[in-house]
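In response to reviewer comment 3 from the previous cycle, which asked for concrete evidence that the modeling workflow produces usable outputs, we include below a single protein chain processed end to end. The sequence was submitted unchanged, and the resulting structure tokens are shown without manual editing.
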Amino acid sequence: MDAEHRRLEEARTKAAQWKKWGPYLSERQWGTVREDYSDSGDAWDYFTHDQSRSRAYRWGEDGLAGISDDQQLLCFALALWNGKDPILKERMFGLTNSEANHGEDVKEYYFYLDSTPTHSYMKYLYKYPQAAYPYANLIETNRGRSRHEFEYELLDTGVFDQDRYFDVFVEYAKASPEDLLIQITVENRGPEPATLHVLPTLWFRNVWSWGGDVPRPVLRQAAGEAGGGIVASHSELGERRLYAEGAAALLFTENETNQERLFNSPNRTPYVKDGIDRYIVQNLKDAVNPEKTGTKAAAHYPLTVAAGTSRTVRLRLSDVAPAASAPKKPDPFGDFDAVMRARRQEADEFYATVIPSSLKGDAANVMRQALAGMLWSKQYYYYDVDRWLTERGADPFKAKRRAAPRNDHWHHMYNAEILSMPDKWEYPWYAAWDLAFHVLALTMVDEDFGKGQLDLMLGENFLHPSGQLPAYEWNFGDVNPPVHAWSTIFTYRLEQARRGQGDLDWLERAFHKLLLNFTWWVNRKDRSGNNVFEGGFLGLDNIGVFDRSAPLPTGGHLEQADGTAWMALFCQNMLEISVELAMHRPAYVDMAVKFVEHFLWIASSMVHAGEDVGMWDEEDGFFYDVLRLPDGGAQRLKVRSMVGLLPLCAATVFQGQLLAKYPELRQRFKQFLGSRPELTAFIHDPSKPGHGGRHLAAVLSETKLRRVLATMLDEKEFLSPYGLRSISRYHAEHPYVFRVGDQEHRVSYLPAESDTGMFGGNSNWRGPIWMPVNGLIIRALLQYHTYYGKNFTIECPTGSGRYMNLYQVAEELTRRLASIFLRDSKGRRPIYGGTRKFQEDPHWSDYLQFFEYFHGDNGAGLGASHQTGWTGTIARAMHVFATSTAEQFLELGKAAAITEVEPARRGQSGEAAPSRKR
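The workflow returned the following structure tokens.
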């Protein structure tokens, strides 16, 4: 066992708290729902970036390359000043919805380069211009552009011309769980010497200003010179010290709101949150406390860096004083370099066991940075909804109360946990379905953390008493796709493959909570009780003809092909869990029977082959949403989109273990199917054995499967050189138009950004490639392969004359998805489109961002630039096909199709058009 795996085991057994400190600081706390106490609920305008340097946060903290303890009591992050900016660079800047033509967007260049799962080693890079940061230029230019124009990016401003910028590398290494080494390396990429003020900053989250008898912590300068460091005293954390080697000065202020600047009212203290900013930038010497105490402090390093050279700053945050046996002047940096080297080497050793040896060079770099991004995207998330409602006068248990703009019915929620975020700047809050995909990648490096994330969503502080999973903080009551059960059985199978057995008690606990969620779906989202489901936008934002979460302009309602497909898959996941439990605990046999029957009801309702209008269109060989009108009429909304491909994903292979152990079930199933032949008349017959005697639960019969695959694999439709598009390219020349009176509703193929403001306009499902749904389709293809075997082939691409089995199709899709990030034959990465700096400059070209989605034709990155969350699932897909063959999948069957080849079989040692983004 290598050193990092030993640390994971110690964390698992609670022998040592290796995960207590980590990258748990948000990258944007301003503009969040938690900090919004306005009447209108306009979070962006209530707490702005301009206010953030001066206004104390209520619910969390943010910072640049920051860390904190797991309760975010004490925080550490970087502040920088190039001598020209109007403010310190203490946090990332970005645009709000009203300021940008394609929704909110961070306007910085930063990269998560490395992290182990215990954060024993982490590395981060921030690129800081030497010229004044163009805040106003970015806002004004973007605000003036239409939705049909590219966004104006930081590189477009010219601020990086002639390489006049600093590369600021930040590395963390743990000597012990409470002893953190911090190394900051500043490299001047420009042609001339330049000065950078580096201000590593330590502060306490403000928990004392909001009422109650809360002890106030304190920071103070240690005895001796500035290099003696900062002592932090806290009633819960105890005492620890930040040693700051060679600091020119230590600056102290309070983490308190500057009321005078923001609200023209007196300050409680002359030393406020922006005191260090005013001291450095405005040269106001009385802005910091001469007594060298406070709740926010920074070590000041004014560094002049020659062209093409670097300067290094070393710090140490520790609860351990230098050893008494050390020399008279103990040196906290005596072992610094040795520990830093050891942790780097141990990180390499750990990833040698994670990244298949067959993935070399660039591919290994892509996979490692994807996993680093996943691990850096952890965040302490604190939100007591009941207290938040009470503080804004919306106490749900008082008769005279103000109406809350959101989350009025979620007052049970008390969240104070480390959570995996989609993007710590653009989406610094969890989303239920995002999180389910995050676990796919996270379990590659830390099964315990992945399982814990799934546990949290099902806990009493998250799950609504009705059984609904919370969606996201802007509206917890919105409906995300029900993929939690899918992620749960995936995680269980992974642990089963690695350890020889899965955590059955954990699976059983999850099953009972998932059953509540399943019942909520059945009771709330099946309007007519006919096993077809709604759900609203279901995470697919603007994919529909209408806003699917709003009243329809026609009246009536939608029967959603994606909502119903999600429920079919949910049934299969619950069936698989109940079968696994029944193999050990007979009480679950009846639950397995229940989910077999329920799946058949849903699947048959999807196809709906009777006289009424159903989701399956026999002429097109595709699924569509059905619009049910108030007068009883109905019609299909014939948009060829991911909505119609998701029924393909409802496919799960079963080995027949349940029937082998409980042979009496055969008669029950036979009787049920015999009395209702209509249930299997138009879907796949689950009683029909396939390869190896396996059985398949699937909506699509073989005939329908081939028809859907032919459309999906057509390069004129869904198949892009970089994966599967969210809407068929057919709609570029043939937009779908639906008229209601004088209004025209149009859906066209938009391979890049959205041209509509639906859901804020910052996510587009009308053409781009999205990693999570591509991952679901790959998983489904592997399931079909284990059932149909290698003799089932399909033309791929359609019309090419080239035939593949379904494993090969899945592998080909993964190759196309991975190629987004990998260098092509010309040395260019599609992800960066036509942006020359990223394509040609060696100081940029190997640093990767994992965007929210990708251009449907050229693969360029779009949307949130750091949504490594579900885009990080590319690491899982790459791993699967680097460690398996089609034959192994057939041999190993369902478990392999869900997770990966068993460890013993891995064979491992341990110029495109420019996009909006690039």
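The chain has a mean pLDDT of 93. We consider this sufficient to address the reviewer's concern, and the full set will be provided in the supplementary archive.
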